[in-house]
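Posted in: Structural Biology > Protein-Ligand Complexes

Title: Requesting predicted complex, pyridoxal-5'-phosphate in pocket

I'd be grateful if someone could produce the 3D structure tokens for the following input. Sequence and ligand are given below.
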Amino acid sequence: METVNDREDFSYILENYKEICYNVNNAREKYGRGEVDIMAVTKTVPYEKVNFAIENGLCLLGENRVQEYLSKKEFYDKRAQVHFIGHLQTNKVKYIADSVSLIQSVDSFKLANEINKQAGKVSRIMDILIEINIGEEISKSGIDKSQLFELVSQISELENVRIKGLMAIPPIGAGEDVFEKMNELFCLTKEKGFENVSMDILSMGMSGDYEMAIKHGSNLIRIGTKLFGARNYLKG
Ligand SMILES: *Cc1c(COP(=O)(O)O)cnc(C)c1O
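-- Reply #1 --
Done. Output follows.
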């Protein structure tokens, strides 16, 4: 992770945020869409910068890596909520079950079942999204869309887990049809009216494609680079 020096000026983060808000509002108006939540994706970003973003109104954070999250969470401004958005191994669920408000990257019954167990241990219900590998890329996480209804149906039986929607990471440069397909799956799942399932959140859209995602019904966009600048994995 990078380190921050005392005199560093974070005002560019606020400028970036304002620009994103402006673009989001334009896209909503243009495509006739409702509220869109903007998540700050914090991988590799030092907590000082994240806290600056929170002070300026970004109150939803997205964390990718359990280890990194655990090293930063106690320093985070408590006003923010955290979603886990990265690939999650079953044996790590226990470390995050008491502190994240939602897990976006659920792509197997096995994982959902472990979340159910760990949520039960801390007496809570964990909200989750089902991640779909919408670009059908080998080596990407997420389920195949053909498995969606069966998985939703199985998970809906779990007592301490609530499905709140769907999430996807479309391939870089994906065509509009991919976003359209996600929206279609979201609407179809909603129409099915599964018990214990509320299709409230469609999480898609990142720095390079959030306007297109909003066009196709996303109501939660996950922004890293456009907010905090390019990630530098080499420092620290
Ligand atoms: C890194 C990441 C993002 C943000 O990507 P940017 O292109 O930097 O905005 C969003 N979602 C997930 C799951 C990510 O891992």
